[in-house]
Amino acid sequence: MNATYEPTGAAHNLIPGFTQLAGEPTNRSSEATINLIGQYFSTAFADELHLRGLVAGRTVMRTLGTTEMLDDNRCRTRVEFNIVTAIPGTTHNDLIDILVTAKRKCSAKIGSGVKIFLKAELRSGRFEFGLLPESSFSY
């Protein structure tokens, strides 16, 4: 599923300081599934920040999803999250740990039929919507 990204309206921004960039896929049921997975992940990410006593200055997440055919003729949804965030007092290793934990929580909620890929970048200071990760690190 290919997508063109644009900033979404306030209704999609469930967490203060968190902006999710949505795509315009051609399959509406796939879009709904991917949006739901994005909401689960962003909630798990925000919860993990809260548990650690951290506050993100700003987070932008782009979600891209496709359907893969596996060797045993099963289909699996593949969701990639591209995340740029500014979290004062956090190292890259801290961010990796936070994202991996959020990914585990999200995966436990959505089941094994979805494969989640993460690309993230930790920034300091302000950044704009167009500055999404080139691939600072991936998990």
Spell out the blueprint of helices and strands.
Blueprint: E1 6-7, E2 18-22, H1 28-51, E3 58-69, E4 75-86, H2 92-110, E5 114-122, E6 137-138
Parallel strand pairs: 2-3, 4-5
Antiparallel strand pairs: 1-2, 3-4, 5-6
Give a written overview of the molecule:
- The protein has 139 residues and is of the alpha/beta class.
- It has helices spanning 28-51, 92-110, and strands at residues 6-7, 18-22, 58-69, 75-86, 114-122, 137-138.
- It has a six-stranded mixed β-sheet, with helices on one face.
- α1 (28-51) packs across α2.
- The longest helix has 24 residues, at 28-51.
- It is elongated.
- It starts with 5 loop residues before the first strand and ends with a strand.
Summary, kept brief:
With 139 residues, the chain is α/β, with parallel strands linked by helices. The chain contains two helices and six strands; from the N terminus they run E-E-H-E-E-H-E-E.
